[in-house]
């Protein structure tokens, strides 16, 4: 069976990655509609070697659409997702608009696919940092309950979209040539610099990105008591987020059992060579579907702690790939 599919936000970084993932995985598409804002009128994007026109997103854009991928920001999702559902589409939304809605499943297919059974037309794609962290922790969690997570993220420009990626390139060029450069997309100089994640900070001192990691982890795991302490940082890397993670478990399994769990878990690749000091790097995670995990060791500061380092492509498993995997689960259910 083939499906009539739409991508909202098709010209953005995640939208274009969705096109690539759908093509690479040979998703069964009968027709594909590319939707974006009026700024994208006249553009075409390639799919299976054929140019497809980009159409303006309108309330009537979803007639006949069966599956709609949304990646155009929370405001667009709040406005148009209900319209798409009313037209008969199942929506997989990459924004934060519906993630914490108790009636909307928040899904990582390798972790909680059963949550898809209760969808009412909307399925939320988790935040990229949450996806990468939970993929990196799931093999460990299957050995013992995780009580607490301390995580520091090293987030690439791709998480802020295509314009941020271009700003990093432009800023780097200016820096290397001794030219002045004024950032317009991000709030601080990006080349050869890093800074706290550029999302609003609440009264509790956590920014919006950190709050997403806390709340989404509890919802996906179905564990309201797990403690999560994140610090999110933007670093001058084009693609692939990295995360330094300390997990405190109820019991600490033998190291060899931990390594074996990672070797056996689909969607994660163990990159842990102590002899060569070779561990996950964003340059190697870029373009890859798997989350790379390494630096696995017992934490010296807590009796049941395990520390590790993870790296995953924010545009693929952190966004587009996870969304397509959700769609694959739906059509094969």
Overview of the molecule:
The protein is of the alpha/beta class and 333 residues long. It contains 8 helices and 14 strands. The strands form 2 sheets. The protein has a 7-stranded mixed sheet, sandwiched between helices. The protein is globular and about 60 Å long. The model has no long low-confidence stretch (mean pLDDT 97).
The CATH topology assignment of the largest domain is Dihydrodipicolinate Reductase, domain 2
| Sheet/helix structural class | alpha/beta
Mean pLDDT over all positions: 97
Any idea of the CATH class of the largest domain? Alpha Beta
CATH superfamily of the largest domain: Dihydrodipicolinate Reductase, domain 2
Sheet having the most strands? 7 strands, mixed
Shape: globular
Computed over alpha carbons, the radius of gyration is: 20 Å
- Total DSSP E strands: 14
Name the helicity range. Answer: 25-40%
Task: Report the uncertain regions.
Answer: none
